[in-house]
């Protein structure tokens, strides 16, 4: 049986090596390339046309979410599985909307990763158990905190963490390589989405719900 070819895109070397070791020791899979950035990963997909890409959504430069349609453009037959530390359903939903076929978190076990690869290769969608459980809990009781956090973008969550550390808009702009004006726009949108009045209220909100931002 022909092995399922995989490219791994993650900016942590140990994670790439661990996933490669697991998959290359499985009879159904072979890892044909690895990359630490979306930019390089996109070029590898364009050249090698793998069956599946496993890609972290938090990448330097182009993030995993934005990279999905780019990979699909150059390798339309390639299936993409998003991998992330984020367990908020909004991230999984956005990833699927961008063209991915699956989403697992870094809390997923080895077997769930293998199941995701096989399901996606068979043409199905796959969402890991952790996300499904979160969705089930939200159906039972969804509070305003979860609704607010799920509206935030990856960049906005990043900026909230900088604000909590006491950084000014200028310092945040330097740290994230964006303009001060763009930081101010993000700050305004964060307060609007969370229905908060100022930075002090935001820091209090963050401290109260810190676990949701990890």
Describe this structure in words.
The chain is an alpha/beta fold. The protein folds into two domains: 4-135, 3-Layer(aba) Sandwich (Rossmann fold); 144-208, Arc Repressor Mutant, subunit A, CATH 1.10.10. It has eleven helices and six strands. Strands 2-1-3-4-5-6 form a six-stranded parallel beta sheet, sandwiched between helices. Helix 3 links the parallel strand 3 (52-56) and strand 4. The model has no long low-confidence stretch (mean pLDDT 88).
Briefly say what this structure is.
The chain has helices at 13-24, 38-48, 64-74, 89-97, 110-121, 129-140, 144-150, 154-164, 169-176, 180-194, 199-208; strands spanning 4-9, 29-35, 52-56, 79-84, 102-105, 126-127. With 214 residues, the protein is an alpha/beta fold. It folds into two domains: 4-135, Rossmann fold; 144-208, Arc Repressor Mutant, subunit A (Orthogonal Bundle), CATH 1.10.10.10.
Please give the count of helices.
11
Beta-strand residue fraction = 5-15%
How many distinct beta strands? 6
Q: How many discrete domains?
A: 2
Report the mean per-residue pLDDT as an integer.
88
Low-confidence segments, given as residue ranges, are none
Shape: elongated
What CATH first level of the largest domain would be assigned? Alpha Beta
Q: What's the CATH architecture of the largest domain?
A: 3-Layer(aba) Sandwich
One letter per element, helices H and strands E, the order comes to EHEHEHEHEHEHHHHHH
**Main pleated sheet:** 6 strands, parallel
């Amino acid at each position: 049986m022909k092995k399922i070819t995989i490219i791994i895109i993650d900016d942590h070397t140990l994670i790439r090596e661990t996933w490669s070791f697991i998959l290359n020791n499985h009879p159904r899979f072979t890892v044909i390339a690895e990359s630490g950035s979306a930019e390089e990963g996109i070029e590898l997909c364009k050249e090698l046309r793998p069956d599946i890409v496993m890609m972290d959504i938090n990448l330097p430069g182009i993030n995993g979410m934005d990279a999905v349609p780019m990979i699909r453009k150059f390798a339309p037959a390639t299936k993409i599985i998003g991998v992330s530390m984020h367990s908020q359903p909004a991230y999984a939903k956005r990833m699927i909307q961008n063209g991915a076929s699956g989403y697992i978190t870094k809390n997923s076990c080895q077997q769930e990763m293998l199941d995701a690869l096989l399901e996606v290769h068979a043409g199905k969608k796959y969402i890991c158990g952790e996300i499904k459980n979160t969705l089930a809990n939200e159906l039972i009781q969804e509070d305003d905190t979860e609704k607010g956090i799920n509206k935030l973008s990856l960049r906005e969550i990043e900026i909230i963490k900088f604000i909590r550390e006491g950084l000014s808009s200028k310092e945040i702009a330097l740290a994230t390589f964006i303009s001060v004006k763009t930081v101010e726009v993000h700050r305004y949108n964060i307060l609007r989405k969370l229905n908060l009045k100022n930075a002090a209220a935001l820091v209090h909100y963050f401290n109260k719900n810190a676990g949701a931002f990890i």
